[in-house]
Amino acid sequence: MLPSSVRMTLRRCKGGAFAEPGGTFTATDFNGNLTGRKNRRCYNESMSRLFLRIKKHICFSVRDTLITAGIFAAAFALCFVLQHFSENDFHVPLIFVLVVMIVSRMTDGYLYGLVAAAAGVISVNYVFTYPYFELDFTMTGYPLTFTTMLLVSLVTSTMTTRIKNQERYIKEGEKEKLRSELFRGISHDIRTPLTGIVGATTVLLENENISGEVRRELLQDINDDSQWLIHMIENVLSITRMGDSSETIRKEPEIVEEIIGEAIRKFRKQWPEIPVRVRIPDEMLFVPMDAILIGQVIQNILHNSMIHGEGCTRIEVEVFIEDQEAVFRFRDNGCGFTWDRSASRPGQPVLSDTTGRLDRQKNMGIGLSLCRTIIQAHKGRLELSNAPEGGAVVEFCLPLKEQNPG
C-alpha cells in the first residue's frame, strides 16, 4: 500500500472518471493503465498510417478521371468500328484488357486501374455481348469467361501500378543519392575556404607590423576565398531551385546571346585578364530553358576552366544548331581532363592542378556534377573530352523543342 500522502495526491483513471482522493491506488493498476494507454496510442498510430497508405494509393483526381474517361471513349469507338469488319466480338475483351493496362499506367494509385477492370467487364457484357445492352451472366460459359477477364484485368492493373511505383521509387532514390553527393561536395568545398579566411584574418589582426606585400597577398587570398564561397552559394541556390524533380523546371524560350553574355560578364569580374571568344549564329536564337540554371551551368564551366585548367589563358565559346538541338561548346587551352581509373570512380574526369596554388580545389567539386544534373533535367546531355591540340572541351546540348514526358 502506498503512503497516505501519495494516495491523497494521485488520481486514478477508471471508467472514464478520476477516483476521489483517498481511494486505493496500486502499482498494478498504474502499470495497467499506462499499458492500456500505450496500446491505444499504438493502435491509433497504426490506423493513421494505414489510412494514409490507402489514401495515397486510392485517391480521386480530376485529371485521372478525364484520362480514364477518354481512354474508355476511345476503346468504345474502336470496338464499334471493328464490329463492321469482324463477324465476332472476340477482340473486344482483349481491347478492354489493354484499356486497363493503359489506365493503370497513366493514372496514379490503384483506384482507377481497379475501376477500369470492373467497368471493362461490365461494358463487355452489357454493350458487346448478346443480348446487347442487357446484363446477362447466366449464359453457358459466360460466368467463367467474365470471371477470368476480371481476374486478368485486376492482375494487370495491380502489376502495372506496382511497376510504375517501383520506377518512381528508383528515380527518387537516384535523385536523393545525387542530392546527398552534391551536398557532401558542398560541405567539403565550403569548409576549406572558410578556414583560409579565418586564418588570413587572424594573421592580419595579430600582426600589426606586417609588411604591405604580405598584407596584400593575404587580402587577395581572402578575396579569392570569398569569390569561391559566392560561387558555391550560387550552386546551392541552383540545387534548391531545381526542387525534387525535373518537372519543377519551368522552361521558357530565351535568347542565347543574352544568357551567354550575362555569364561572361560575371566571369570577367573575377578574371578580367582572360579573353573569352564567342561565336554564335547571326540570327537570333531562342532555346527553351530555365535562364538562371543554364546561366549557372555556363558560369560553372568557365569557372572550372580557370580553377582546374592549369595554364589556361583563353576560352572559346561556340553555339550552333545540330539535329534539332542547340549545341554549346566550351574549349580552353589548359591542361585538359585526365580520367580516373580507380575502383571508386572509374572513368570519372579529373582536372589536375600541379601548381598547388589551389590544392583545396584539386577535385571537380560540385561544378560539373551540378551542370550534368541541370542539363539532364532539361532533357539534354553533357559531354567532356580533350581537344586534339590540347585543352578541355565541355559540350552540352539542349533540345530546341519541348519533349513530351514518358
Task: Give an overview in words.
The protein is an alpha+beta fold and 406 residues long. It has helices spanning 4-9, 27-57, 62-83, 91-106, 111-127, 142-206, 212-242, 256-270, 291-308, 367-377; strands spanning 13-14, 17-18, 252-255, 276-279, 286-289, 315-322, 325-332, 337-340, 348-351, 381-386, 392-399. Strand 8 and strand 9 form a beta hairpin. The strands form 4 sheets. Strands 4-6-7-11-10 form a 5-stranded mixed β-sheet. It has a two-stranded antiparallel ribbon with strand order 1-2. It is elongated and about 105 Å long. It contains 10 helices and 11 strands. Mean pLDDT is 75; it is low at 1-28, 342-348 and 350-365. It folds into 3 domains: 4-10 and 23-56; 62-170, no CATH class; 248-406, Histidine kinase-like ATPase, C-terminal domain (Heat Shock Protein 90, 2-Layer Sandwich).
CATH class bucket of the largest domain? Alpha Beta
The number of domains is 3
Which structural class best describes the helix and strand composition? alpha+beta
Strand content: 5-15%
CATH topology of the largest domain, by name, is Heat Shock Protein 90
What is the number of helices?
10
End-to-end Cα distance: 72 Å
CATH superfamily of the largest domain: Histidine kinase-like ATPase, C-terminal domain
For the biggest sheet, the summary is: 5 strands, mixed
| CATH architecture group name of the largest domain | 2-Layer Sandwich
Please tell me how large the radius of gyration is: 33 Å
What is the strand tally? 11
Morphology call: elongated
What's the overall average pLDDT, rounded?
A: 75
Helix amount: 55-70%
Strand order in the largest sheet: 4-6-7-11-10
Q: What is the ordering of alpha helices and beta strands?
A: HEEHHHHHHEHEEHEEEEHEE
